[in-house]
Amino acid sequence: MVELLSPAGNLEKLKIAFTYGADAVYAGVSHFSLRIRSGKEFTYETFQEGIDYAHALGKKVYVTINGFPFNSQLELYRSHMEKMAAMGPDAFIIATPGLVKMAKEVAPDIPIHLSTQANVMNVLDAQFYYDQGVSRIIAAREISLRDLEAIKKTIPDLELEVFVHGSMCFAYSGRCLISSLQSGRVPNRGSCANDCRFPYVLYAENPETGVAFRLEEEEGIGTYIMNAKDMNLASHVDEILSSGVVDSLKIEGRTKSPYYVAVTAHAYRQAIDDFYAGRFEAEKYQKELRTTKHRGFTDAYLIHRPFEREGTQSLESSISEGTHQVQALVDEHGLAFLAKDKVCEGDEMEILSPEPLEERVGNERGEIFQKEDGSWWLKMKRLETPKGKTYACIHSGNENPILLPAPLPPFTFLRKPLDG
């Protein structure tokens, strides 16, 4: 069965990813990965805790060491690899040939996964890295399923991993310099400022006179010329798995919210399981994925060639939108929730649970009930903390847990449709 690989920006997200169906997660510590902001949420101590947690479940953790180092950083990378290797991760994710060589010296027993930043698009490059000891290639987002089939046919023992969901970069496989040029933040070392999401004003200049003219925009069209839509291949999971050449489906998003981690893992877990059970239903997964914040969706290039695709750019806005707002997150014990938005007495919230619910509940604290469409809901009658303090309403940022009318599975989300 194909592996489902989710992002883990911190220890909580790691646990949520596994709770909602991921087989493995990828994560990193500090600036040695390409997500400095998420890397700061893991310490070496909590990363070890995450690895131990995963292994206790029979699941895996892959360490991102996929930055592009300067000469002055090489010994820091070596020291970091040694520390990470001692924790017993299941693979290193690396982007450069030199660091592949270093990893083989420092930790010869740890598998090496080649980052998508290495831009592997063909059999020749795949063979080169395989000969260097790479066991898995995370293919460039621009690759086609046909090219993956050719690589697998030539090198059947090489594992192939593909992105199926998440943010897309304007630049080729994320190899971008726009942020470096404008703000000095280097994307290829993990500090991208997302300059491609900004609005831009366009000018035309006459080189002979030096006169510049501002180009007027048609109202409503916008100037987000570099803003890519988010990848969403949930409707094509059946086609991808039918090919028999993909070993791992990867979800982007170490800096995304815990809710995003939960929903994407849940939806793609369903898609994978339904495919193998012969009941694949694309719209079911898409309905759930639309509840997350996104910039619009595109199926990108795995199924279609780049020159055959239209609608991969979101030109009107870079604001992320979704169909639902998260109200609360049930804690790891399943007895209370923490508010993520305003929650008041009498509020009804839809339940997103990692496990099927079966029992209706009603008491002085609230009700858990099922609607005709099969969805489960929670109505809060009394907002009470374990210490007996009560609220008429509780707001995001208030860290007091609110007792549930009955236990729910840990990391259950409570949400509201934005149109209701």
UniProtKB/TrEMBL annotation:
Record protein name field: Protease
Xref: PANTHER family: PEPTIDASE U32 FAMILY, TRNA HYDROXYLATION PROTEIN P
PROSITE patterns per UniProt: PEPTIDASE_U32
Signal peptide as annotated in the record: none
InterPro entries reported for this sequence: Peptidase_U32, RNA/ubiquinone_mod_enzymes
Family: Belongs to the peptidase U32 family.
Keywords attached to this entry: Hydrolase, Protease
UniProt GO molecular function: peptidase activity
Any Pfam family the entry gives: Peptidase_U32
A biological process term (GO) from this entry: proteolysis
